[in-house]
UniProtKB/TrEMBL annotation:
InterPro entries given in the database record: DHBP_synth_RibB-like_a/b_dom, Sua5-like_dom, Sua5/YwlC_C, Sua5_C, T(6)A37_SUA5, TC-AMP_synthase_SUA5
SUPFAM superfamilies linked to this entry: YrdC/RibB (SSF55821)
Residues of the signal peptide: none
Record key words, sorted: ATP-binding, Cytoplasm, Nucleotide-binding, Nucleotidyltransferase, Transferase, tRNA processing
Superkingdom, taxonomy of origin: Bacteria
Function as written in the Swiss-Prot or TrEMBL entry: Required for the formation of a threonylcarbamoyl group on adenosine at position 37 (t(6)A37) in tRNAs that read codons beginning with adenine.
Protein source organism: Polaribacter haliotis
Coiled-coil region list: none
UniProt family annotation: Belongs to the SUA5 family.
Protein name: Threonylcarbamoyl-AMP synthase
Lineage: Bacteria, Pseudomonadati, Bacteroidota, Flavobacteriia, Flavobacteriales
Limits of the YrdC-like domain: 5-191
Length: 319
């Protein structure tokens, strides 16, 4: 029997009983548990096979919930929250002592976000506690953007994927922390950099492992298909390096028009948002075809293209 269901009351019951439920958000599906249940939080880590040093994002239904979670909100964090919540932005702020160390991996900061999905907002309003939710994929593998992706990963581990359809934005939230009251981007994500800078001005990006050993999710290899994947500027050129191989191609907007290849075009109209929303599903599809290699085309380095390139880079072995 399928574990995918739209029943919010069932999710409320499971979560109240310290069980995990996969929840829809506008970015990717999350593997959610009660932040105050040690049992639930431990099982998030064990189900994902995620190391304990990698902290979790706390999901809340509204800004009024922040006061129980953080102790200080910088001015620019307020501007960002006004501009982008509910939405695909996670803020890293000084944590309240009520937040268990297991959530934050012992740090003095906590990552928090108000997701913009009607089903999960309704669920959060019905629960007397916030939800910790990392992306609902085994550690290191491709994030899920459809209920079926989660079911494939975790059907033997959890009792419900709360069905909210396909994720509209399709890549994870943009993570923003603060150093001396100034915002720093720790993870590029579903918000375009330009849109963030329109609110708080020029912003520093520290999303490389060397730069931010503190954001452990920034591992060089992450979000990865099991098929060997390459990220290149010129796909036609790279194909020549793989003679007699079964090749899958992932391109932005222009077809290579080669019938011998399995090809996915992310947005024929060249829309970055459409491309982002289809990115992980396309990787899931190509990865299921038992190909020898996947060759992905690098995106223009602006807008959401920057975030898409970040994810593709981490999905690949080579530069
Ligand atoms: O869109 C999203 O953010 C999704 C949905 C489900 O909300 N969640 C998600 O969670 O992507 P996860 O666990 O896959 O990624 C969370 C990232 C990790 O890279 C983690 O290291 C970072 O957030 N993080 C969490 N708490 C942090 C903190 N206190 N300081 C710095 N980084 C933190
Ligand atoms: Mg993740």
């Amino acid at each position: 029997m399928s574990i995918i269901s739209k029943d919010i009351q069932k999710a409320v019951k499971l979560l109240t009983n310290e069980q995990l439920v996969a929840i829809p958000t506008e970015t990717v599906y999350g593997l959610a548990g009660n932040i105050f249940s040690e049992k639930a939080i431990k099982s998030i880590f064990s189900t994902k096979k995620r190391p304990f040093f990698n902290p979790l994002i706390v999901h809340i239904s509204g800004v009024e919930k922040l006061e129980n979670i953080v102790t200080h909100i910088p001015e620019k964090a307020k501007l960002l929250a006004d501009a982008f919540w509910p939405g695909s932005m996670t803020l890293v702020l000084k944590k309240s002592e009520k937040i268990p160390d297991l959530i934050t991996a012992g740090k003095d900061t906590v990552a928090v976000r108000i997701p913009n999905h009607p089903v999960t907002l309704e669920l959060l309003r019905q629960l007397p506690f916030p939800l910790a939710a990392p992306s609902a994929n085994p550690f290191g593998s491709i994030s899920p953007t459809k209920p079926a992706h989660v079911e494939r990963y975790f059907k033997n581990d959890i009792q419900q994927v709360l069905d909210g359809g396909s994720c509209e934005n399709g890549i994870e939230s943009t993570i923003i922390g603060f150093e001396n009251e100034e915002p720093i981007i720790y993870r590029l994500g579903a918000l375009a950099l330009e849109d963030i800078e329109a609110v708080v001005g020029k912003i520093t990006i520290k999303n490389k492992k060397e730069q931010s050993p503190d954001a452990p999710g920034m591992l060089a290899r992450h979000y990865a298909p099991s098929t060997k994947t390459f990220l290149v500027d010129n796909v036609a050129h790279e194909i020549k390096n793989h003679p007699n191989k079964k090749i899958g191609i992932l391109v932005f907007k222009d077809s290579l028009k080669d019938k011998n290849l399995t090809e996915i075009i992310l947005s024929e109209n060249g829309l970055m948002h459409e491309a982002a929303s289809k990115l992980y599903n396309s990787l899931h599809e190509l990865d299921s075809l038992k190909l020898d290699v996947i060759i992905a085309e690098r995106f223009p380095d602006n807008g959401l293209g920057k975030s898409i390139n970040d994810r593709l880079q981490r999905a690949t072995f080579s530069a």
